[in-house]
TrEMBL record:
Belongs to the aldo/keto reductase family. Residues 24-266 form the NADP-dependent oxidoreductase domain. It comes from the Bacteria. This is Related to diketogulonate reductase (ARA1). Keywords: NADP, Oxidoreductase. Pfam families: Aldo_ket_red (PF00248). It comes from Fructobacillus fructosus. InterPro entries: AKR (IPR020471), Aldo/ket_reductase_CS (IPR018170), NAD(P)_OxRdtase_dom_sf (IPR036812), NADP_OxRdtase_dom (IPR023210). SUPFAM superfamilies: NAD(P)-linked oxidoreductase (SSF51430).
Amino acid sequence: MAETILQERTTLANGVEMPVFGLGVWKSSNKEAAESVQAAIKHGYRMIDTAKQYGNEAGVGYGIQKALVDNHLNRKDLFVTTKIFNGDQGYLSTLQNFDEQLKRLRLTYVDLLLIHWPVEGKYLDTWTALEKLYHEGKVRAIGVSNFDEANLQDIQNLNRLMPQVNQMEFNPLVQEKHLFNKMNGLGIAMEAWGPLGGGEALNDATIKAIADKHGKTTAQTILRFDYQMGAITIPKSAHEERIVANAQIDDFTLTDEEMAQIQGMNKEKHSIWHEDFAWHKGSEETGVKDSVSYWDDTDEYLNKEVVY
C-alpha cells in the first residue's frame, strides 16, 4: 500500500524520525483538544502538538491515552510535542515546570520539547535546561519556536547541541526565506504554525483557481504548498471532517508554475512577533497578553479516568 502523508517521516539531525504532518490544538479547550486528538489518531494522525500556554495539556493527555486504548496503539506509535511557557523560562524553572507538564500530559517523556518564544535574557538558560532533559531521556528531540536568525546564532555560539526543529509561522504569506536558508545550513527542520495563513490566504483568488484546477479546497492546496516547500505541518481543527480533509493532500502535486504563483504571495509579515508581547514592553498593561489560557474544564480533564 502506498505511503500517505500521515505515514511519511522526516529524520531530524539527531536521528529521530518525526512525522511530516500532524494536529495542532492552539485555542482549543481541553474538551475540544481531547476530542480532536482522539479523532485525529483514529484517522491515522500520529503527531500531536500542544503547549503549556494553550492551557489544554490535560485534555491532550486524556485524548492521547483514550485514543491509544481505542485504537490498540502503543505510546511509541505517537510523536507528541509541547513547549516551555515564557513565564517558566530560566534553567531551574524550566526543569521544575516541565515535570508538571508531563503529569498533565499523562506521559513519561515527550518526543519534542520546544522553547515557545525567545525571552530576552532567559532563552539560553532555558536551552541549557532542554539539553539536560534531552540527555536524561525525558525528551527525544529539542528545539525552539519563533527564533529568528540572531536567536539561532546565539545558540550556535554555545558550541553545544543545536535545535533539531524551529517552529515558525509559515504559510503563503510568511515564507521565512532567509531564515529557512539558515536553518537548512544548520540542519534544523522547519515546522509550520499557522500553516493556512488565515482568511487572507484561504480567500485568495489565485489559490482558489489552483485549488479548483486540482479539485481540492483552498486549505488543502495551501497545506500541499507548505509540504512541497519542505515544512513540517500541524494544521489545527476541532472538526473531525476537516481533520480528515486536511490530510488528503497526497493525491495531487502543485506544478512549478503553481508553486511560483503562491511563492509570489509572500509578504514576510508575521501575524504576531515577540516584540509585541508584554514582557518586551516593560509593562503588563501593554503589548500582547502573555499568560496560560484558562479553560474551566481543566480540572475535569486532569481527573478524568480512561476506561480500559
